[in-house]
Specification:
By secondary structure, the protein is mainly beta. The chain is 10% helix and 49% strand. The chain has a single domain (14-148), classed as CheA-289, Domain 4 (OB fold (Dihydrolipoamide Acetyltransferase, E2P)), CATH 2.40.50. It has helices at residues 67-71, 139-148; strands spanning 13-20, 23-28, 32-37, 51-57, 60-66, 82-88, 91-97, 99-106, 116-117, 120-121, 123-129, 132-137.
Length: 149
């Protein structure tokens, strides 16, 4: 195998596909605890634009992050769509996305470089679904970067 051969994950994993703008992203289906309709959040003073604020989910206060605004600085916030509830350590975090698309078994090319952040990469790799490229995110890394920044 030469250096141009992609390294494919030998075991395809169930991947939740979601869209923000024209880009389809994915995450391990095990990362998503629940999917809710997008709802207004109580803004936190001084928070960066990608932190939409706080929402109440059945008595639990959840920080809501805008995936599009986090990955593409200056992008307009998601106006309608869904919230992916993710368990991060002992708390729930919501991710605002425009559309939850599907769940697919994907082979992830882990050799693909992802966008680097303060704590390292937030991308596990890329995959292909229906001829389109899917950017597979490491949601734990994404949330950790946001909560620690």
């Amino acid at each position: 195998m030469d250096s141009t051969t992609p390294i494919l994950d030998p075991t395809a994993t169930p991947t939740l596909l979601f869209r923000v703008g024209d880009v389809v992203y994915g995450c391990d289906i095990g990362d998503a605890q629940e999917i809710l309709p997008l709802r207004p959040a109580s803004r936190l003073p001084g928070a960066p634009p990608y932190v939409r604020g706080l929402i109440n989910v059945r008595g639990t206060i959840v920080t809501l992050l805008d995936v599009g605004a986090r990955l593409v600085p200056g992008r307009a916030p998601v106006e309608s769509g869904s919230i992916l509830l993710i368990r991060y350590r002992e708390r729930l975090v919501g991710l605002a996305v425009e559309e939850v698309v599907d769940v697919r078994e994907l082979e992830i090319d882990t050799s693909a470089a992802g966008p680097a952040g303060a704590g390292g990469t937030i991308t596990r790799g890329v995959a292909t679904a229906d001829g389109a490229t899917v950017v597979v995110l490491d949601l734990e890394a994404l949330i950790r970067q946001v909560l620690l920044s």
